Amino acid sequence: MASHTSNKRREEVAVKRAVLYLRVSSKRQMDTDADFDPEGNSINTQRKHAQQKAKELGADVVDEYVEPGNSAQTIAKRPVFRQMIKRIMEQRDVDCVIIYMRSRVFRNYIDAAITKRQLEQFGVKLVSTKENFGDGDMAEAMEAVTDVFNWLAVRQSGEDIKAKMANKARNGGTITRTPVGYLNTVEVIDDRKVRTVIVDPVRGPFIRLAFELYATGEYSVEEVAQELYDRGLRMPRNARYPEERGISTNRLYGVLRDDYYCGWITHEEEKYKGRHTPLIPQDLFDHVQMVADSRNTARERRRVHHHELKGSLFCGSCRRNRGEQRRMIVQHATNRSGNVYRYFFCNGRFDHICELPYVPIEQAEEAVDDHYATVRFTPEFIATMRAELAATVDEQQTTTKILQAQLTKQLRALDTKENNLIDLAADDSLPQGKIKAKLREITKQRDRLTARLHDVDEDLSTAAEIIEACLQLLHDPQALYRRCNDQQRRRLNQTLFEALYIDEDSNGDVQVRHKLKEPFGILLAAQSQHQAPTGPLEALPGLLSAVPGPKRQSAPPKPGTGAGLQLTGAALAGGPWKVPGSNEILMVGDTGFEPVTSSV
Q1: To 10 degrees, the CA torsion angle through 75, 79, 83, 85?
Q2: Are 451 and 411 in contact (CB under 8 A)?
């Protein structure tokens, strides 16, 4: 009897203390109307209704708990909600918890029942601003039925979303957030907004480069990530990472394993051909998987082994037997005594298809050093080339002067025509449309002639400069190679050769063959022609035209600051040039290789 009286008295006493629990299930809802309310429109709306309810109950709001963008299906995964329950249990200064509506808080009826039981133990009532079931057994039953229907709605909505996602995947649509290298965008098709995916013009090329570098078998994931950062890849900044950063090793490894980049959509372990543009071809992706799998199978601990021949040496056996281009990889092996042995070996050994034995690094170095003596220009050829170059350039300069005079004369004639047309345009009785069309045509002709006049002598002079630098470089390349440090040797190898093929001859000795970059290959072929019985360099003009020069830059980089090889000689002191087929810009300055010698 006393307990019944106490409960009745409590119901008659006005509620004095309340906390608010406000929640949205996604970040998108938080962003709604965020331009004037940082918490978004949904939270603001819930707060206003909850404060109004507290006012109706005569309660003072002592605290507020906001769960932003947390889509967890259970309250156990909502940290703010658990923080609120802990406060109620410890401080016991709350009479009610005001929520917007039960579906905002509970995604299943079990959580609703457990929470109701917890709150009742501390005399706390859960109040909804949108639902008023009253008191008594029927009210509790209605609450329970509402929670069951909310749970059912969540399950049905989830199944509906899963079905739509599966259908989208079958049709090649992207069902997840786009990975790095792609961007989500919206296109308007037939007056309808269609969400689609495009290649990120900034980060997409870096992702392609990552696959290409890793496929060589020469780079670890850490090295690829560092290379991408050095070349300019930066990840988007966000609240968690406000500072500039590159791609992490773990994320890059996931990228290299993700077949989304070669055009596939994965949903529930099924593969579908995606509608997005593949960033890389399928064969490159497959090769990257082979490299990654071979390292995982061997449980290889990747170490960084730097060597000046790394990246330039290829397997001559694979090229000779199967026509395949396979790189030689550096490996350090330690025997039981602790002695370290360094080798080059073909990555085809991972697939058990290469017969080339392990090549000690010292033997490879000696073979490449000897090979440099085979790619030199003779003094006779250099003298002949310089004489022919001088004569050809002089002849071209004469032709150029004639052409410049002709172009200048045409430009003056256009100026006269333009002035005459402008005078005619002042007469309103004449057809203005035809006059304006003629003026536009004259402007186009002037622009074309001006550009041609500016560039008329660029190509030949640049080609002549490149050939002169090549003559200097291959005057005595073996002596030059021996004077270089390791980094300079690496640059020299990359400048001269597309590839150096290492193989064994019939006696088991290491031998080297090469594929030269241009224009070195053209020039050495010209030397062979010069040394032939027929002798003369009859095709020098064609040789010059086969050595394209780059576009001129407004401000040439300072000598020594370029990424490429530096050459000594005044012939190219006026600017940078690039050997076709190479990505190395060769800067020419007065210092060049160190130490400076007369042979360079």
Answers
A1: 0
A2: no
DSSP 598: T
* Single-letter residue type at 309: L
The predicted structure's pLDDT at residue 584 = 35
Count of Cβ atoms closer than 10 Å to residue 186 Cβ: 8
Mention every residue, 6+ apart, whose C-beta is less than 8 A from residue 196.
184, 185, 186, 187, 275
Tens digits of per-residue pLDDT, 87-139?
A: 888 888 888 898 888 887 787 788 788 888 888 888 888 888 888 887 787 87
- CA distances 146 to 21, 106, 126, 440, 571, Å, are 19, 10, 14, 75, 87
CA distances from 207 to 176, 180, 237, 568 (A): 18, 8, 18, 36
Q: Where are the domains of the chain?
A: 10-161, 182-297, 550-600
What is d(CA 378, CA 529) in angstroms, rounded to the nearest whole number?
Answer: 13
**Spatial CA neighbour of 267 closest among 279, 259, 277:** 259
Under CATH, what is the fold of the domain 10-161? Rossmann fold (3.40.50)
**Residue 183: φ, ψ to 5°:** -135, 140
pTM: 0.39
- Spatial CB neighbours of 182, under 8 Å, sequence gap ≥ 6: 174, 197, 198, 199, 200, 204, 276, 279
**Residue 584 near residue 565, CB atoms below 8 Å:** yes
Are the CB atoms for 224 and 304 separated by under 8 Å? Answer: no
Three-state DSSP class for residue 534: coil
533-544 average pLDDT score: 53
Tell me which residue of 590, 548, 549 sits closest to 567, measured CA to CA: 590
**Three-class SS of residue 578?**
strand
Tokens in use for 131?
């639902």
- Provide DSSP, 178-216: PPTTEEEEEEEETTEEEEEEEE-TTTHHHHHHHHHHHHT
For residue 497, the cross-strand partners are 516
Look at domain 182-297 and name its CATH class.
alpha beta
In the numeric block, the tokens 């400069």 are attached to 465
Helices 249-257 and 282-297 pack at an angle, to 10 degrees, of: 120
CA-to-CA distance for 576 and 223, rounded, in angstroms?
Answer: 28
State the burial class of residue 381 (Cβ atoms within 10 Å of its Cβ: 0-12, 13-18, 19+): buried
Contact 233, 247 (CB under 8 A): yes
Structure tokens that stand for 40 in this block: 């978004």
Fill in the amino acid letter for 517: K
- CB count in 10 Å sphere of residue 372: 22
